[in-house]
């Protein structure tokens, strides 16, 4: 029987019963489940309880044959042992060759073939060696690796012994594995977050991050980015879109995709105007070389990935690496493949590298790299140019620069304070 609402008219005796621990409840169905274990009193406990208060005696004489039940207090929570952690955290030592491989993939080549480079380098030690164009590219990659890891030259020199050969092979294997690991890592973070950096139009349907098959030509936002720039004006043509979807219109690596361009600068008469200045390309670059947190801000700090690896300027290979990662992330394919239908990623990468390196003095190539370095390092020649400029310009001119550091500002303030303070003699 449900208990009635207590009112001020209840007898004092009833009020006293309600204030005492529950010893008997006529209807067990209304009994709340106890939080702790229920302890049933034994016969010896009953005899010992004869000296209990009158409320217990009256409740037992009410005809209830159930032994009084009490809910013991909840046990105190177990005290956890507090382990005092040392302030000194030992960082996992990174093997130098692993570090070289992770940086080499985005600074030397996205498709670094270490076994082929090794084979060509050994061949080149022969007096009658005549390299072809492919061999030349591998030998150039070796020279670039040695710049990053000078120890390789000494390891190669000592590779004429069994022990030396093992050390040399082990170093190359570590570089090869870390090249693959770094590229896979970059691919995973760019494909995951690139949608957050894209620009959507008002009438675009939502685009979920998964499955990736929704991207590519299947969604208007990604379609506007991967379509070749020369087809950009046809995106509102239903007939063209159908040909694009069924593959009649092929997207090839030799056609610059629209995401490489700043669409506000595009010149239909000159396909190179606005090339490699697309906003999304910069976001991918910043995510790879600065860190995922800098993807939209582009803020350069001393502890960033680029700084830790000694990056002092942007190169065509850096841009090419960001471009292939962006292109894969925008596509509908789930797994990384060098070939995506008609689109070959290695050809795409090489086309971009050739744009900057085949004719390095070309006006457009020079302008593009200067533009990138201004955006990334705030100087057309990168960090080296910024340091040189700081030594030749007056301090006031340097402070007016956007990238003026707080240390220079503080130095200027100290100089002004000291100029106002008269010098005091020692005696």
UniProtKB/TrEMBL annotation:
Matching Pfam families: DUF6698 (PF20414)
Superkingdom classification of source: Eukaryota
Where are the stretches annotated Disordered?
1-89
Basic residues bias (residue ranges)? 1-12, 79-89
What InterPro entries would the database entry show? DUF6698
State the protein's name: Uncharacterized protein
* Feature: compositional bias, Low complexity: 41-61
